[in-house]
Design brief:
Helix content: 40-55%
CATH class: Alpha Beta
CATH superfamily: Phosphoenolpyruvate-binding domains
Number of strands: 9
Number of helices: 12
Number of domains: 1
CATH architecture: Alpha-Beta Barrel
Oligomer: single chain
Order of helices and strands: HEEHEHHEHEHEHEHEHEHHH
Length: 282
């Protein structure tokens, strides 16, 4: 992808976080899912690190190699016309240099944005030290700027998702981290694990930047989230797991009922899928 075209797509993605409507962002795990999401009319697509990892036989949690993850990101970015932002977990390294290399490779793969989480991988201390995470965010911004792409960085804190620290302190710790990430150069702030509408509204006001919430069964409706100021809702591995749920139902029916009927209910027609996959990118 030409760097000017990539920069244009990055700006397009950035504007979607400041539009009149909340950005409902689905996460793809392969070319077929990305093409389906694009054909449905989504103006941008994210990747799901968990979905890609599971599809390639890895457990979630940065067990897949950076090269394998970025190989799929590149395939997806080449296959669609809309902006693609990549879930790159913790950046595949603790040092600024490693994270900078990840960003450079992600941009070369065609991504125009990324998620960067602050999980440490240490069960006793689940979050990265705040100063170190701030430096990683600065490294992302500096690298992308040097490459000429206004890369959209979605900085994530896992205070709630990892149940880090006493429950009474989690909101303030989340605000502290997200504000620090904003000041270090993040464009959007991600706080998965929060589902209470009043808490989400309070957080959206406190961080003073576009807020990303993870869709979950416990979450308020999209209309409610939009009303309280949420800028972006992403699906994480949800769409992939929904597809896997269909596979499970079909598999059980084949064993238990000696039938294939559920395999055809709502299935994408063969010719439609072939047309989507073989379509020229532009």
């Amino acid at each position: 992808m030409e760097i000017l075209e990539q920069a244009r797509k990055a700006e397009e993605l950035r504007k979607l976080h400041h539009g009149p409507r909340l950005l409902l962002l689905p996460n793809a795990w392969d070319v077929a899912s990305a093409r389906i999401l694009e054909e449905a009319g989504h103006p941008a697509i994210a990747t799901t690190s968990a979905g890609i990892a599971y599809s390639l036989g890895y457990a979630d949690g940065q067990n897949i190699s950076r090269d394998e993850m970025l190989s799929m990101v590149a395939r997806i970015a080449r296959a669609v016309r809309v902006p693609v932002t990549a879930d790159l977990e913790s950046g595949y390294g603790r040092t600024n240099r490693a994270v900078a290399e990840t960003v450079e490779l992600a941009i070369k793969a065609g991504a125009v944005g990324m998620n960067l989480e602050d999980l440490s991988g240490d069960a006793k201390n689940p979050l990265m030290e705040l100063p170190l995470q701030i430096e990683k965010i600065r490294a992302v911004r500096e690298t992308a700027t040097a490459m000429g792409v206004p890369f959209v960085l979605n900085a994530r804190t896992d205070v709630y998702l990892a149940a880090a620290g006493p429950e009474a302190t989690r909101f303030e710790r989340t605000v502290e981290r997200l504000r620090a990430y904003r000041d270090a150069g993040a464009d959007c702030l991600f706080a998965p694990g929060i589902s209470n509408l009043a808490t989400i509204e309070k957080l959206a006001r406190a961080v003073e930047a576009p807020l990303n919430i993870l869709a979950s069964p416990a979450c308020p409706s999209i209309a409610e989230l939009e009303r309280v100021g949420v800028a972006r809702v992403s699906t994480g591995s949800g769409v992939m797991r929904a597809a896997m749920g269909v596979v499970q139902r079909v598999a059980r029916e084949m064993i238990e009922e000696r039938s294939c009927q559920s395999m055809f209910a709502g299935a994408t027609p063969y010719l439609d899928l072939k047309k989507m996959i073989t379509r020229e990118r532009s």
